[in-house]
Amino acid sequence: MRKLLTIICCTLGVLSAQAQQKWAVVVGISDYAQESGWSKLSGTNDIELIVPVLHRVGISEQNITTLSDAQATKQNIRNALLSLTERASEGDMIYFHFSGHGQQITDINGDERLLDSLDFWDESIVPYDARIDNAGGYDGENHIVDDELNNILSQLKDCIGERGSILVVLDACHSGGGTRGEADEEVEEELFVRGTANRFDILHPENKEQFEPVDVRWVCISACLEHEQNFEYKMQDGTRYGRLSYALSSVLATKMNISELEQRIRQLYNMMPLPGKRYRQTPNVDYNLRLKDKPIF
Asked: What are the structural domains, with CATH classification, of the chain?
């Protein structure tokens, strides 16, 4: 009997050691550096919204890294993600959330020309220490371009293997129609839009690290299509959240696959009023079809 109990205890110990762990890096920026040229947002509100949801789907407090405002520099975001290559294991789940500005930027490796003959620009998320333009000699070194983010995600995917999963949520605008919406006869108040129509032109691409295109082996949800604006969602009490963050926090649950999640987010988007009839915002979901029916959490 004692031998049997010993075997059972050892077996449970092995299973526990092999159990999937879940990790998260959540970035939210409301106040960018004053000299950056970027307008104020409500990105830090999204952190308060998303973290309780991550607890709900099984991510423990000690496995969640949050970066807000001045903490959310490019280096800190990179470090937080790459640290998971040492902490995460085969079969683990990783969640990355970014709430802040987004901007199109010079495509220096030409991959956008291969993918879309009408769009010769990369997309990027904008950390706290990235400027909106080339003022002061800034040349885009603190933007996180999609090629670079994909390279980091590829390293994480290699670490957690095929049994592991990655969910990326980008509550930022890739292009949009202005740092804030332009007033018209339909809209009486200033609009808060997460992005700018002004593209960032890298003046010295020869000085930039180039990243090879990689296959998408994760799920990425963006707040809007490339040609649309990403409007913040205003609650009745005046609190603002990212539209995608609010929708995700309302519907995300364990054992949900990407098809179900995409459908629920789109349904909620249709119920969330936009500033005027001429505005559109459509969530964009990018993933390998093999992941369609796989549970996210």
From this structure: 21-291 (3.40.50.1460)
